[in-house]
Each structure stands twice: as structure tokens, then as C-alpha cells.
């Protein structure tokens, strides 16, 4: 539904391949330094879209001709904190697959994965404080991590009866916070920083909704882990308001109706209406992602 918008940024991966290689080199150095085991290091280095870094590079190049070395390392920290949060997500959601391969939860079980996530996140903070960045960078990084954690906590309070606004609040914290940090980290002296932050927040919301929808675009809908675990994502929050009777009983009949509705034109139009102000924020802004 929103793939064209997201892909317009992801398509720049080929443009920024040199910069992304440098970010990966920093990630590899950090992982070696903090002694993360090889199999997890390979998952981190060889997977992931790096969309937060691509977005940050795209915005930064609107104002400057080159990327300073410190920003590459900060974006490496961004990618690592994102992966650390995914380790916890996979345990909470009981995800067996992450980025097209077996998740850490599937490989190691819940206890080891949680501890690995805790260790990775704590070491990231240890490393970033040793890097002698300006205090405001460290402070904002800490506030961003706090927002992500709080958003993850609030997500567990969502129910089928939760409002669209409650869902958006979770996404604004858990997903958008890191997009906002990555996009503004090198530009806090810019007069446009507030506008960039708003743009990145809106992008994070659209990105998460599309991600929620993607989780149902699988060959066998009933194998979707969001469906199996009854995760409260955008499709379920929305459909419950429209058709609450479908959620009173988990049987084949209701399952087929839910599947049909999620892929219907009516549902697509409902999503576009729900997200109209966030889409307008992206399309009408003069923050145009280019190089």
C-alpha cells in the first residue's frame, strides 16, 4: 500500500553503497570489541535493510556534501540498537523467523535471547559514552532508547479494543523514535530540524503500518506469526472496530473472512483515510529525499 514511498528510500541503497559499507565496518568493529558471538554477528552484518541509515544519509546530503566520520559510527550504533530491540521483540512475539532466517529466539530460546539483547544494548551505551561525543548526542541517544523501550512496554498494553490513537502512540515511540534520531543526529543546528523530526516521525508511522500489513502477505496467511500470536497490529485494531464479531471465535470461517477483508479495497481505503495526515506530512514537505 505504501511500498512506493518506502522503496523510494530503499532504492538509494545502491547509491549509498560506499557509505553503508563504512557503517557495516563500524558495526563489525563494535561487535568484535564487545565480544558478540560469531553467528549473531553474521545475522547483524548480513541482513537488514539499513533503512534508518539510508534515510539519515539522504537527509544529511541535502545540507552537506560529505558525511563526517562521527556520523558513520553513530549510524552503526543506530543499527545495533535497532537489532537489540528486535531480539526482545522476537521473544515477546515468539517469532521463529527474522530477516528471512531463523531468529535468535528460535536458535537459542527465550532466556538466552533476552540476555543477549540486554548485553548488546548495555554495551552499545558503554561504547557510545566512551566515544566522547557531544553531551547532547549522548543525551538524545539515551532519550531515544528510552522511548523505544517505553513504546515496547505500551505495546503490551494494547488490546483489540484499543483505539487507533493508542496504536499510533506506541508506533511513534517504538518505531518512529529511532527514525527521528537517525535523521536529525547530524543536523541539530539546522533551522529545519523540527521539520525533519516531524517528517521522520510520520515516515516511521507509515513504515510500521506497512510492516504490519506485510506480515500477512505470506503464501499461507494462517502461518503469519502475527495472526497465530494475535499480535495487536494495525490490521487487527482496525478490523475489530469494523467487524468485532469475527474475533469472538477463532475458526476457519472467521479466519477466511479476516483474510479476505485485510486484502480488500475497502480496507485499503480505510487505511489511507486513517493515515491521511501522516501521508500529507510526507508528500507535502519540502524535505525531499534525494542526492
Structural features, described:
It is globular and about 55 Å long. The chain has a two-stranded antiparallel ribbon with strand order 1-2. α5 runs antiparallel to α7, α8 (135-155) packs antiparallel against α9 and α10 runs antiparallel to α11 (193-214). β1 and β2 form a beta hairpin. It has a single domain, classed as Farnesyl Diphosphate Synthase, CATH 1.10.600. It has helices spanning 3-10, 17-33, 38-46, 51-60, 69-93, 104-108, 110-130, 135-155, 164-174, 176-184, 193-214, 225-229, 234-242, 252-262, 265-274, 276-283; strands at residues 97-98, 101-102. It is mostly helical and 291 residues long. It is built from 16 helices and 2 strands.
Features:
mainly alpha; 291 residues; two-stranded antiparallel ribbon; Farnesyl Diphosphate Synthase; 69% helix
Amino acid at each position: 500500500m505504501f511500498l512506493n514511498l518506502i522503496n523510494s528510500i530503499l532504492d538509494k541503497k545502491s547509491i549509498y553503497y560506499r557509505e553503508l559499507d563504512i557503517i557495516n565496518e563500524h558495526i563489525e568493529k563494535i561487535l568484535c570489541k564487545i565480544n558478540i558471538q560469531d553467528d549473531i554477528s553474521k545475522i547483524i552484518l548480513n541482513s537488514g535493510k539499513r533503512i534508518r541509515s539510508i534515510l539519515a544519509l539522504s537527509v544529511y546530503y541535502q545540507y552537506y556534501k560529505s558525511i563526517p566520520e562521527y556520523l558513520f559510527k553513530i549510524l552503526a550504533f543506530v543499527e545495533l540498537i535497532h537489532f537489540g530491540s528486535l531480539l526482545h521483540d522476537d521473544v515477546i512475539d515468539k517469532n521463529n523467523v527474522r530477516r528471512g532466517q531463523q531468529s535468535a529466539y528460535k536458535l537459542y530460546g527465550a532466556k538466552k535471547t533476552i540476555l543477549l539483547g540486554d548485553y548488546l544494548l548495555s554495551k552499545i551505551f558503554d561504547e557510545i559514552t566512551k566515544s566522547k561525543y557531544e553531551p547532547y548526542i549522548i543525551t538524545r541517544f539515551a532519550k531515544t532508547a528510552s522511548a523505544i523501550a517505553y513504546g515496547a512496554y505500551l505495546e503490551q498494553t494494547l488490546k483489540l479494543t484499543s483505539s487507533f490513537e493508542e496504536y499510533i502512540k506506541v508506533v511513534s515511540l517504538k518505531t518512529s523514535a529511532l527514525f527521528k534520531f537517525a535523521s536529525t543526529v547530524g543536523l541539530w543546528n539546522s533551522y529545519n530540524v523540527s521539520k525533519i523530526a516531524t517528517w521522520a516521525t510520520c515516515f516511521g508511522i507509515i513504515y510500521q503500518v506497512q510492516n504490519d500489513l506485510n506480515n500477512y502477505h505470506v503464501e499461507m496467511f494462517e502461518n503469519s506469526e502475527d495472526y497465530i500470536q494475535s499480535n495487536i497490529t494495525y490490521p487487527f485494531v482496525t478490523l475489530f472496530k469494523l467487524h468485532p464479531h469475527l474475533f469472538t471465535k477463532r475458526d476457519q470461517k472467521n479466519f477466511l473472512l479476516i483474510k479476505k477483508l485485510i486484502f480488500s479495497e475497502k480496507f485499503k481505503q480505510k487505511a489511507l483515510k486513517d493515515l491521511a495526515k501522516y501521508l500529507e506530512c510526507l508528500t507535502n514537505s519540502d524535505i525531499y529525499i534525494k542526492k
